[in-house]
Amino acid sequence: MELRHLRYFVAVAEERHFGRAAARLHVTQSTLSTQVQGLEREVGGPLFSRTSRRVDLTEAGELLLAEAQRTLTQADRALSVARQSISGEIGAVRIGFSGVAVLHGVLTADLHRFHQAHPRVELSLAELPPAAQVQGLRDGTIDIGYSPGLGLDCTDDLLVTRRAGTSLSIAMRHDHELAAAASVTTADLANRDLIVFATHEEEGTMLARLGPAPGKHRARVHLVSGTLGVLALAAAGAGVAVVPTATERITLPEITYRPMRDGGGPDVVTLSRPDELSGPVRTFIASQTSTAR
Fold this sequence. Notes:
CATH class of the largest domain: Alpha Beta
Order of helices and strands: HHHEEHEHHEHEEEHEHEEHE
Number of strands: 11
Structural class: alpha/beta
Number of domains: 3
Pfam family, one: LysR_substrate
Distance between the termini: 53 Å
Keywords: DNA-binding, Transcription, Transcription regulation
Family: Belongs to the LysR transcriptional regulatory family.
CATH architecture of the largest domain: 3-Layer(aba) Sandwich
CATH topology of the largest domain: D-Maltodextrin-Binding Protein, domain 2
Shape: rod-shaped
Helix content: 40-55%
Domain HTH lysR-type: 1-58
Largest sheet: 9 strands, mixed
Strand content: 15-25%
Organism: Streptomyces monashensis
């Protein structure tokens, strides 16, 4: 028995007439009669009592009608759900992100725009360092990443899309000697204790730019994975923290920010799989305003 057999049976049962049912289904009356007879052979008895004037359901036909209608409704719903998933209207999108993407506004703008257009898609977020986002995309635990674009271990298996440029600032305890300056330079940080984000290759690149003066050594470098941890150490006076300028949106009474005059920061990028199959994820990616590279 196939779904079309049930559709033919239901049409006849609802119309109580083979001719009207055939017209409704856009098939010939002989084809419809043949299919109904085949269904009756399969169930082992008559489903209709036929006279020259009308078609009535037998007791077995009445019972089958209720079940067939439920089955067809569920089948139509299953097809609709699959179509909506492919078109990106329902389903889920799992996002990994670094704090800078939130502070810069890139992630929040994307989430708002997508949720307004596709409110039935479930959005789940996890704050992850860049290396964990790359791994998550490869092993399938996340669908999209929002990350600083420096030092990412991405080969051709991932698509990196530039979303925004950033600048750098220094976060320090309010009574630090550099707090009196209007701005700072890389040279001002030479031989000072530093607090930087621990993002694998990025930390080495940053330290190379902010390295000690020739012949001297910095007292200490703190490598911290999260924005709040970086600011907590800076507020404790453990050093000066190199942060994206967007971090200045976080106000703490112990913290003072100063811009770096020569401190261009890493881009904010999104990471995705180029061969993505999920409809909701493809729709989310398509909704972003970005420049791919």
